[in-house]
Write a structure and sequence with these properties.
The chain is α/β, with parallel strands linked by helices. The protein has 2 domains: 245 residues, Peroxisomal Thiolase, Chain A, domain 1 (3-Layer(aba) Sandwich); 147 residues, Thiolase/Chalcone synthase (Peroxisomal Thiolase, Chain A, domain 1), CATH 3.40.47.10. Strands 1, 2, 5, 6, 7, 8, 9, 10, 11, 13, 15 and 16 form a 12-stranded mixed sheet that branches. A hairpin with a 3-residue loop joins strand 15 and strand 16. Helix 3 packs across helix 6 and helix 10 crosses helix 11. The longest helix is centred in the N-terminal third of the chain and has 17 residues. The two termini are 23 Å apart.
Length: 408
Amino acid sequence: MSLKRVVITGIGVVSPFGNGVPALMKGIEEGRSAVRFMEGWDQYNGLQSLVGAPVTMQGEMSIPRQKRRSMGRMSIFAAQAADEALADAGIMLADEDLWRVGCVVGSTMGSAKSINDVFETMLPDKDLSKLNSTMFFQCMSHTATVNVAQYLGLTGTIMAASAACASALHAIGIGYDLIRLGRQDILLCGGAEELHPTVTGSFDILFATSTKFNDNPGKTPRPFDRDRDGLVCGEGSGILVLEEYERAVKRNATIYAEITGFSTTASGIHVSQSNKESMVMCIRQALADSGVKPEEIDYINAHATATLQGDQEEAEAIREIFGALVPVSCLKGNIGHTLGAAGAIELAASLKMMETGMIYPTLNLENVSQDCEGIQHVMHPLKKQVNTVLKNGFAFGGINAALVCKKI
């Protein structure tokens, strides 16, 4: 059986810079930070990190109320990103066989605010009758992908990837396999996440968050920097249209890139600590799947959460495979760590960098930490032809993901 080729023909984003890919790229191009002090978070006893990268919700009323009732913030973000991705791809669902169109959208969990609201409503009196019928649909772990499918009327393969910060790349990898195996023609793939103090708190109790910049939010997170002190949570959604290559060519679609390689591995060592050896294996397998040599990669979009160990382990993995030959940057200094959405939002930005031939630097990287040296950090805008991109995504549980995309 010969495998089909898989291409990306549409991208959609909701980010802390606003709705749409243009808003995301404008914020990155201008070197801005979307991180700010979160009013009201200081009422949570024990919460040390009081910064985040929130989305200002807009346009949600255009989603019919009947569909919107089952959506938390993250599902609204996903639906909006899916609309943009489909429009960008020039796909009219009314003209498609919807049994051949599906979606795979990842997240770390269900709507954090909705989950919090459920327990605040129910627990004081242990009264389940106070809950309404739509709350469960906002809380369930596959809420984003289900709500996108219901909103768009999709009847093909509907799946959810839940692998913490690797969720979006897992979703894209699943879509890649479904199309190249011939099981679907079109898939909306990516991730969604929402910001809430309980989400930041889950990292806070692990000492993984940034706590030293509450009075100067624009200076954190600081990926690969000597003064990095942890991650900053963000929110939003990234959705990509994956399509079978021959079909895309036949309809004269604009093709951003072909997905040529994907891999996911696990360390099997520690539930929260990153591991260089498993990262190296993951990247090498993705390169082998793609048939690409390390020297043929033109740009690496790093995961780089600005945690002490995570950045060190990733830098060491990149150094072992690529040395200082390939430009490396990440976007978390701009928009924080969007967790389950990160892989898709950051891949969308990488595809736009590929399109324009301009690689943007890692914001807040001012002094490369000694333990992150030996790779080619991008610290200023770099004009360079980009034909092949590696996107990394690493998650709690020792789960790694790596994706290779090539310009056609």
